[in-house]
Amino acid sequence: MQAIPVQSLQNGPHPLSSLPLVVLVGVTGVGKSTTLEHLSQLRPFALLPDRRELTDAFIFGFEQIKDRTERFRRTREFREQNPGGMAAVLAHLTLEQNPTLPTLFDGLRGLEEVKHAAQFDGWRFVLLDAPDLERARRLIGRGDAFDAVVLEGEGETLQMLNALEGVHEVFTERELLELSQINADSWEIVSKVKIVLEERRNYDPRAARDYLLGTLEFGRVIYLDTQMYSPLEVAGRLLEWL
Fold first, then answer.
1. Which of 152, 149, 161, 159 has its CA nearest to residue 195?
2. How many domains, the chain?
3. C-alpha span between 226 and 128 (Å, rounded)
4. The domain that contains 101 carries what CATH number?
5. Any domain includes 83
6. Residue-wise pLDDT tens digits, 184-224
7. Domain range enclosing 99
8. How far is Cα 149 from Cα 190, in angstroms, rounded to an integer?
9. What is the model's pLDDT at position 91?
10. Whether the predicted pLDDT of 150 surpasses 80
11. Per-residue pLDDT for 143 more than 90?
12. Are 101 and 45 in contact (CB under 8 A)?
């Protein structure tokens, strides 16, 4: 998959808002990166810098912010001041050259971003989804250094999970018990569940899903449950839709 460097996005003659673009939509842990990996094995694509890279460059000004909770807070503030959030950033960027390959972006989140992005007729949306419990399991197992948050307090894993703000609005008692029994350190389990909770406070994946599926025709949006299908099946279905 051909990567487009950040430098080539600025001051070019080809605005992304007017180009055909395939946008992945989904919160952390739904399988966006895994889908892209498998898709790249099936067909060549041009890949824009991902959400993390554009956030660091155009929202944080390359300030090093490692705590995911703080990143969510800062991006929420940016979205409040700039309706459309990351979709607005993307729409204001340009390419130095018109890409010869289908171009993908990973990705957008939440209702405000997808509503802003949907106004650009050439943009199509791949809506990836997975239950919160499955997302938490994946985060616990993926070992990504980016998944860092500050935790307070100590105790047994289940006790710490139950103490997280808003946890019972997202997970059942049975799900929390299941998470607490995963063979991993308490910090690993609790920190990943906190990421799921913090992200849900900042982006409503259900509202984004309902808007896209209820507003756009099938040719512009496809919904894929990444728990129902294997990564290769997800990539295959996506390729057929494209």
1. 149
2. 1
3. 7
4. 3.40.50.300
5. yes
6. 999 899 999 999 999 988 998 899 999 999 999 989 999 99
7. 2-131+204-241
8. 10
9. 94
10. no
11. no
12. yes
Q: What was the pLDDT predicted at 188? A: 92
- Domain-embedded: residue 166: no
| Token pair recorded at residue 138 | 């994946």
What's CA 31's distance to the chain center, in Å? 9
Q: Which two tokens stand for residue 90?
A: 């993307």
In a domain, residue 156? The reply is: no
On whether residue 186 sits in a domain, the answer given is: no
147 has a pLDDT exceeding 70: no
Contact 60, 89 (CB under 8 A): no
pTM of the model: 0.91
